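Hi support team,

I'm opening this ticket because the web form for multi-chain structure prediction keeps timing out on my end. I have pasted the exact lines I submitted so you can reproduce it. The total is 1236 residues across four entries, so I didn't expect it to be a heavy job. Is there a limit I'm missing, or should I split the entries? Thanks in advance, R.K.
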Amino acid sequence: MATHRFTPTHYHTTIGSHEPVLHIADGDTVITTTVDARGKDATNQVVTPRGNPQTGPFYVEGAEPGDTLALHLDHLAPNRDIGWSGTVIAANVVDPEFVRSLPENELAEWRIDRARNTGTLISPKTSLGELTLPLAPMLGCFGVAPVLGQAINTGTSGEWGGNMDYRGFVSGVTVYFPVAVPGALVHVGDGHAVQGDGEIVGTGIEISFDVQFTVRVIKNKKITWPRGENGEYIFTVGNARPLDQAVQHATTEMLRWLQADYGMDYVAASTLLGQTVEYDLGNIFDPAYTMVCKLPKRVLAGYNKTSSC
Amino acid sequence: MATHRFTPTHYHTTIGSHEPVLHIADGDTVITTTVDARGKDATNQVVTPRGNPQTGPFYVEGAEPGDTLALHLDHLAPNRDIGWSGTVIAANVVDPEFVRSLPENELAEWRIDRARNTGTLISPKTSLGELTLPLAPMLGCFGVAPVLGQAINTGTSGEWGGNMDYRGFVSGVTVYFPVAVPGALVHVGDGHAVQGDGEIVGTGIEISFDVQFTVRVIKNKKITWPRGENGEYIFTVGNARPLDQAVQHATTEMLRWLQADYGMDYVAASTLLGQTVEYDLGNIFDPAYTMVCKLPKRVLAGYNKTSSC
Amino acid sequence: MATHRFTPTHYHTTIGSHEPVLHIADGDTVITTTVDARGKDATNQVVTPRGNPQTGPFYVEGAEPGDTLALHLDHLAPNRDIGWSGTVIAANVVDPEFVRSLPENELAEWRIDRARNTGTLISPKTSLGELTLPLAPMLGCFGVAPVLGQAINTGTSGEWGGNMDYRGFVSGVTVYFPVAVPGALVHVGDGHAVQGDGEIVGTGIEISFDVQFTVRVIKNKKITWPRGENGEYIFTVGNARPLDQAVQHATTEMLRWLQADYGMDYVAASTLLGQTVEYDLGNIFDPAYTMVCKLPKRVLAGYNKTSSC
Amino acid sequence: MATHRFTPTHYHTTIGSHEPVLHIADGDTVITTTVDARGKDATNQVVTPRGNPQTGPFYVEGAEPGDTLALHLDHLAPNRDIGWSGTVIAANVVDPEFVRSLPENELAEWRIDRARNTGTLISPKTSLGELTLPLAPMLGCFGVAPVLGQAINTGTSGEWGGNMDYRGFVSGVTVYFPVAVPGALVHVGDGHAVQGDGEIVGTGIEISFDVQFTVRVIKNKKITWPRGENGEYIFTVGNARPLDQAVQHATTEMLRWLQADYGMDYVAASTLLGQTVEYDLGNIFDPAYTMVCKLPKRVLAGYNKTSSC
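Hello R.K., no limit was hit. The queue was backed up. Here is the completed structure from your submission:
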């Protein structure tokens, strides 16, 4: 249960079977940093090429294919005072003919007040004035190495996680990934100080982060898609296009979870989900879109949980 | 500002330019009833063929094409003690290969306790036991007559509303529809005592309803897709397949709204939406799926609202 | 087996249970005309509002729900010397960001030489010069009244046919529709002198037509989606969005056909289709897209055909 | 312009920046072999793990990012006498509810008669009897290394090519790929003796191949998606889900091609494509679907071709 402080010296714009930067044990905690989506660090200097550069990978001892890696997001926080965002809704999020009406995208700047926990719009000058929003720091892109020795760009996502850009990935959440390679190979990056559903301007408020996470290996536990939980919900994540397919992946994974760990057959699971399920739109911008299938823990109270995820 | 009590004697399974059952004035209130999706009334007797039968249409004096009709849902409540739902997740909501694993759908019965405001699962017998959920009554299918004299089945939805199956259409919400024919021709039906996001078992807890609504005509106000508001949000509704297109419709409509009524250009509107928008999944079961684009009223405080919707 | 010459005096921009203009018998032939998509007739005068106006409906005696209507397209031919088309690819057919690069659409004019069977581009002036193409006249929008007394706009399509904009609907083809109302109620309109796959500029070369067709009622034959055949292929038609769903409809209908009329179980039908099926893209412009699933008659030679469609 | 005979000793189930097996020059020809999708060679022995194993990669001297690689498929031919295919239409290709009706997939065997150029169904026994089809050998999965040092599994496809499963990739075709890494790194595999459109049973008639191809480097020619040509057509390839997006990629690439190499502005290109374009469905089975946008060379006769692809 050691705590490792790790200062990155290089980054990856693919998630894959790269040389580990650190070996850690089951139960260990890592305290590190991430650069922003364009490769800028806590001093706002470009230190690596853009494209959601990842810190890591971290090799988790004992994690093998067929296991599940639990990644607890202990602490996520911006570590500088300036963030940036897109200013025009992405072309794929509006009616095709309406694209002609959209202006060109430029970057907005936000002043991040870490003491007050707010972000304030500095530029461009619009009728919004100095719009101020509460911070809700989240990780946009993170995950484990995919199967087959693949190395996949950090613009997209899949069973391994990746660029899911889901604003539910905040401090306090546990995320479960299917382990595909020995050591799992944890990658983290792409912090957002704030983000709406869907990441519809193509960005959150992008910023460098302090990140602390803790890993746990769940042996001989096979899952297909990322899962997670917070105080109120268990949830599953589907990454695909169109959104319909992302919903299919997430919902199927939830049915498997309820069957395997809560002893529900598909009639019970369907009847429960039908009247209580909630869905979040993670992102509708990246090559793979993300939908999250959520079940409130309150409706699960009393059902026998037979397994750890 | 009259209040009309209307007892239906027939129902429609299309939304269209049918003979009005009642003429009402701008500002009037209607108190009526709806049968459930299979045509059963408050006594649980089949009184009309199945398929989301609609009460109405109600002709609103003064409503003309080019206007908007505001429909305030004053009161929605089940008016009997038994509801029913599907028990198997719809085939289109899971991974295609997984469909082979699903059992056949049968109907579940729920006992509705109107005093305690709960629904309790009676059958089938599952590991859920007598699952009890709080009621959250909503209208599944309602709207106004579509353009061109069309009559469109109550299984689907479009610009005119229809079978949106969005669990946000509860008492206290105002829904705005584009008026396409003189009198608007309001139809209401398909009450659900409870429903999860997406209506993924193909039903909510289906039941007959007492319905009270109040209409208001907003002259010379053109909208394209349904809009709405409640205490916390303004929202827009897109109905289409795939979900991606429903998102496009809803988001485009929200941009138009922010421009026309809040004086925001597309940079301001995009910058605001990008970091604060929320989406709800209305339904992912019907021929047209429904996505809802929501903006919290708190982030709009201080912006000049120049128009009524 | 009468032949009726019918001169239309009004048109419909919905396909539905409208008052029939003529009652015809099983086996009868109709010779009539259609206006172009903008309501212009053989003299190039606007005679009715735009939107694929339909000639008809024609009531076929003896056709009842549960039957199939065979509509043989005996003869389709432009009946004037000028046609028009769109000049810019529809926004939904290119990458969303690329829409910004597209010019505004204007109408092109084509001179139709009926003697030489060619269309020649007259305007606008482009590097194409006087591009000349062979005519391949087809019907863009036609079908029978849909179920439930619906009246559905002629911009879209479904099980009833409608605006399929498939360039395979040429003279000599037989199209099969599911009969949904007594008399079937045949509508015809929207002739194209030429069209590429997909109708990707939103039009073919639009023009008024002489149309001759012959009907046949196949009693107690239920089909779900339109089917057809020509000298080389049997085919099925799926209308939906996205294209994936149109493929699903068409392919499922073909499996049903091979099972019911060629005595193939799903293993035989799949094994055959897997290595010999062809698909055409009907349209990717209208609200419902169209995909056509085709099986060459040569690979069916020798299999017992047990029924007429 | 050397000819290299290369016998593979290992294979890859990702397409990526792997160690080259051979360096070849611009203009060179390679004669080699590929194993079938399950890793079986010309003797029908498993020699490598399944999953469209690739022969290569071949490093093409002089190919640099920003160039285009022209890959001419000189000769593709099965090199053994037995092939196999799926026997049940893939679940994603039929209506979701219809999946319940499908039997389980098993493998069919086909006897390949290379002298007569036919494939004959041997098992299972169905009403098809000994169905015999003419061979039409094509490459299912091939391409060049993708950008960013990615290694991507051979089940899917993208800008780099990959598992496009398009039955148009036959002997005599030239395919153009965007070069993303030095040497391009050509991979070839997954031969099909026969395949219908869409690869709807998840396979063609899968078999090991003799493959001969010739490479040419087109310097400083940037393309985005694969392109190709045969005697009758130029074509572009889009790989994505849903099919709609594959059409968007392919059509956008065709517009760029007509503009850059045929001097057509978007009005000219659109007007021409609108009335003459054809689309093929490559595959609707793999994670990324494939649509091909084709323009007949006959309609391009007379337009100035200013560049080589």
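A quick check on our side: Chain C touches chain A through nine residues (CB under 8 Å). Let us know if the file doesn't open in your viewer.
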